[in-house]
Design brief:
Blueprint: E1 15-18, E2 38-39, H1 62-79, E3 85-87, H2 89-99, H3 105-114, H4 124-138, E4 140-141, E5 145-156, H5 163-173, E6 176-180, H6 185-199, E7 217-227, E8 239-244, E9 250-267, E10 272-278, E11 283-290, H7 295-300, H8 304-313, E12 315-324, E13 326-333, H9 334-339, E14 372-379, E15 406-408, E16 413-419, E17 424-431
Parallel strand pairs: 1-7, 5-6, 12-15
Antiparallel strand pairs: 2-6, 3-17, 4-5, 5-7, 8-9, 9-10, 9-12, 10-11, 11-16, 13-14, 16-17
Amino acid sequence: MKMKPTFSLCFLLAGLYAVAQCHQHPRYHNKHDDSKGTHYPGRSSHGEGIYPVKNKTFVKLVPSNADFAFSFYKLVASEATDENIFFSPISISASFAMLALGAKSATLTQVLEGLAFNLKKTQEQEIHEGFCQLLHMLNRSDSELQVSLGNALFIEETLKPLQKFLDDVKSFYEAEVFSTNFNNSSGAENQINNYIEEKTNGKIVKLVENLDPLTAMVLVNYVFFKAHWEKPFSTSYTKQEEFFVDRKMSVRVDMMYRKGYYRNYFDEELSCWLVQIPYNGNAAALFVLPDEGKMKQVEDALLKKTVSKWEKFLQDRKIHLHIPKFSISGTYDVKRIVKQVGMIDLFTEQADLSGITEDEEGGRLLSSCWVIHRAMLNVHENGTEAVGVTVKEVTWRSGDFPHPPRVRFNRPFLLVILDKYTRTVLFIGKIVNPLKND
C-alpha cells in the first residue's frame, strides 16, 4: 500500500533588527527568482496603487491584529515566566490568514476568529484585501528603514495545488510558490535553506534539517527589519553596568547612555516607565520598564486599550536614558499555541483544507505538521557608521521635568516595535536577561 505524503507546514520566521549599513532590497518578489524549483504559474502581484487611497481596507485589520498580538504574547508569557520572549505577531497573522485561503467551513471560521476577527463586522474578502494592502505598505526599503515581510510555499511536485489557491496566495500575500521534490530530502533542504538565507540577508542559515521525505508542503515565512535610531547613542558613553535579572541574580552588560528628548510617561497605576525611541523612517520602539515586582501586573494589562492610553500620555521631555545592548531570539511551537486561541481543527484530521489541493487527502493535510516561528533582534548604538553623529536639540521645552529623571533599564523590561503609519505591531519582546540569546 502506497503511503500518502504527510503535510508538513513549516512557518520559519526570521525577524532581524540590525542597525548596520542598509542595503537595497526589492520591494516586490521577483517571479524569476533563482531558487531551485519550478514556479507555478499564477497572476502577478498587485501593483502599486491598485487600491484608491480612500479605500484603506487595511484599517479594518488594525484592531484585530493588535488583539491577536497581545493575546499571543500572554499565551507565550504564561509558559515562559522567567525567559526572554521575542516574536513577530503580524508575521504569524499574515501566515495564518494566507492559510485561510485554502480552508473551508468550520476550519475557515476557526482560523479567522482565532486571528481575532469578528466575521459579522469584517468579511473574509476584506481581510485578504486588507493584508494585501498592509504587506505592500510594510514592505519598503530605503536609506532610512528596511522592512521585508513575505511568504513562500514549497509544494511536493507530485501534488496538484488548485490554481485558485495559487493565484490568491500570489495576489493577496505576494507569496512565491515552488515545486519541490521532497523525496530528495537533501535537495529540498538546500532549496529551502538557500531561500531563507537570501531573504534574511544571510542571517539565518541551515534552518531546515532532517526533512521527512513524505513531506507534502513547507510554508516559509520571513520578516527582515533593519533601521537606524533617529537619535543614535554614542559608543563613547557605553559602559559596563549591572543588570538585575531577579533579586538573586545580576549580570554585567554593555549599557548605552544618552541624555535627550524622548516621548516618555510614568504610568502611576501600573507602576512602569514608558519611553518611545523613534527610528529614522516610520517606526518606533516602545520600551516599557515595570517597577521591581510589577512585571506580571504590566503583562496582564498589555492590551490594545492600554497601549493606546500610553500613546496619548507620552510627552516629549528630556531624560537620562540607560538601555542595554542586547541580541535576543525566540523560537516557538506556533501549532500548539494557536490551538489555545480557537484553531481547534486546523492541525487534526478534521481540518477542511480542500481549497489547497485536488488531492483526495486535502482535507487532512495538516494532521502531521511542524509549525515553528523564529524571530531575532539586535539592539546596539547604531552600527559602526554612527560614530560621530550628532543631533542638536532645543535646550528647554515647556512640560520638561525640573530635573530630568534617570530611566535605567537595568531590570527586566518589555519592548514593542510599531510601524507608525499602519499602526501595526511588528514585534513584541520581553528582555529578562540581555546576555541570554535564545
